[in-house]
Amino acid sequence: MTISLKTFNAKENGSRMYQLISQLYPICRSITGDGVRKTLHILQEHIPLEIFEVPTGTQVFDWTIPQEWNVRDAYVKNSQGKKVIDFQHHSLHLLNYSIPIQQKMSLAKLKEHLFSIPDRPEWIPYRTSYYSDNWGFCLTHKQLEALEEDEYEVYIDTSLEPGHLTYGEYYLSGASEEEVLLTCHICHPSLCNDNLSGISLVTFLAEYLKSLDLRYSYRFLFIPGTIGSIAWLALNEARTAKIKHGLVVAGVGDTGKFNYKKSRRGDAQIDKTVIHVLQNSVKQYQINDFSPYGYDERQFCSPGFNLPVGSLTRTPFGQYPQYHTSADNLDFVKPDKLGESLAIYLEIIDILENNYTYISTNPQCEPQLGKRGLYGTFGGTQDKKTKELATLWVLNLADGKHSLLDTSDRSGLDFTVIRDAANALVNGNLLKINQ
Amino acid sequence: MTISLKTFNAKENGSRMYQLISQLYPICRSITGDGVRKTLHILQEHIPLEIFEVPTGTQVFDWTIPQEWNVRDAYVKNSQGKKVIDFQHHSLHLLNYSIPIQQKMSLAKLKEHLFSIPDRPEWIPYRTSYYSDNWGFCLTHKQLEALEEDEYEVYIDTSLEPGHLTYGEYYLSGASEEEVLLTCHICHPSLCNDNLSGISLVTFLAEYLKSLDLRYSYRFLFIPGTIGSIAWLALNEARTAKIKHGLVVAGVGDTGKFNYKKSRRGDAQIDKTVIHVLQNSVKQYQINDFSPYGYDERQFCSPGFNLPVGSLTRTPFGQYPQYHTSADNLDFVKPDKLGESLAIYLEIIDILENNYTYISTNPQCEPQLGKRGLYGTFGGTQDKKTKELATLWVLNLADGKHSLLDTSDRSGLDFTVIRDAANALVNGNLLKINQ
Amino acid sequence: MTISLKTFNAKENGSRMYQLISQLYPICRSITGDGVRKTLHILQEHIPLEIFEVPTGTQVFDWTIPQEWNVRDAYVKNSQGKKVIDFQHHSLHLLNYSIPIQQKMSLAKLKEHLFSIPDRPEWIPYRTSYYSDNWGFCLTHKQLEALEEDEYEVYIDTSLEPGHLTYGEYYLSGASEEEVLLTCHICHPSLCNDNLSGISLVTFLAEYLKSLDLRYSYRFLFIPGTIGSIAWLALNEARTAKIKHGLVVAGVGDTGKFNYKKSRRGDAQIDKTVIHVLQNSVKQYQINDFSPYGYDERQFCSPGFNLPVGSLTRTPFGQYPQYHTSADNLDFVKPDKLGESLAIYLEIIDILENNYTYISTNPQCEPQLGKRGLYGTFGGTQDKKTKELATLWVLNLADGKHSLLDTSDRSGLDFTVIRDAANALVNGNLLKINQ
Question: Which of A312, B292, C60, C132 has CB atoms 3.0–4.6 Å from A396's, for a disulfide?
Answer without folding.
Answer: B292
